[in-house]
Amino acid sequence: MKHRIVVLGAGYAGAFSAGYLARQLHPDDFEITVVNAEADFVERLRLHQLAAGQELRHRPLTEVFAGTGIRLRVARVTGLDVEHRTVTVADGTGIDRLPYDTLLYTLGSTAADHGVAGVEEHAFHVATRPSALRLRARLDELGGDGEVLVVGGNLTAIETATELAESRPGLRVGLATSGELGGWLGAKARRHLWHAFERFGITVHEHSTIVRVEEAAAVAADGTVFVNDATVWAAGFAVHPIAAASGLAVEPNGQITVDRQMRSVSHPDVYAAGDSVFALRENGQPLPMSCASAGPTSKRAIASIIGDWTGREISPASLTYVGNHISLGRKDAIFQLVDGDSRAKPGALRGRKAARVKSAILETAAWSLSHPTFGKPSRKYRAAATVERTPHLVAG
Question: What is the reported pTM?
């Protein structure tokens, strides 16, 4: 009987991992199924562009996985039974349960409301394709005019505010952040960021913690009311609750607790990568929920799965975080390098050159999904007769 590998989610981490495994493992011994809620690969890093009114390239997962033998199941994951090794999925035809021998959990994250009243009912966000399209429809209703407030002060908030301001110049865009805008950037990068906001005419409200969202307003802790036509919530990410509900060992925020091989510390037949996983860097600090974390965590999970089930030694990727790349519209960007303790380095790449680098990175990331073994020989490893896995090295 074939060893059944099920991959949950086909974002950057899941799609890359599934394609790599399919090209390295022998189809006579391994069967790979990918479950994803959409039939297309969604470039989450470009969803603020989609919300602003731009069209993104259509990338069907059938084309991404062409020639790999991967079984694609377009359905929502609604439950996980780690004791009986089954995944419950739902689609237009009903509910089904998929058995697995090895599970790779890469369901990613969504917008975190932090318990703030009214966010779910009244706010928009760009963490998923449907939500980005919902915001786009609202902006279309405004007909090129109106007031938009972006809530948050990190990468997604900055990219969303600048993209909306550039693509829809008739909008009056504001940004409310509980701290300082770009306070975590180096001095040069922060000056560049402020100049960009001034150029776009974006109003910045620092030290403004939003405690309630209403249909046509957002209310700050000090009582300030920001009247607007659309509140865009970009105040961080939260993982889906499925892992915690399944009985997997998780961190307080719901991320899966893993060892250094990206295996669940409670259920070693479950591996995790991307935003779903709580992984520690070499300096002992956790990797942030970020596209930059998808690559190293997925490569380490891939190496572990291949090593665990074929007996081959695959060099794991280093869990490092080198910096923040922030788009400021289509022609401007910042690339802020950080040191081993995640502190901003003095220098930063800025302007058009940084924008070209960011665009190249996004194109390369999307291309690599269909070419995950580029530069490396595609092999067909057979399953090991016996399995001896390396001891768990707990990340916590």
Answer: 0.92
Place of tokens 């318990």: 115
Radius of gyration of the chain (CA): 21
Distance separating alpha carbons of residues 138 and 5, to the nearest angstrom = 41
More confident of the two residues 281 and 117? 117
Residues contacting residue 58 through CB under 8 Å, at least 6 positions apart: 40
Nearest to 151 by CA among 219, 201, 200: 219
Q: Given a cut of 90, is residue 214 above it in pLDDT?
A: yes
**Greatest Cα-to-Cα distance within the chain, rounded to the nearest angstrom:** 67
Contact indicator for 39, 15 with CB cutoff of 8 Å: no
Q: What is the pLDDT of residues 230-264, one digit of tens each?
A: 999 999 999 999 999 999 999 999 999 999 999 99
Q: Per residue in 74-114, pLDDT tens?
A: 999 999 999 999 999 999 899 999 999 999 999 999 999 99
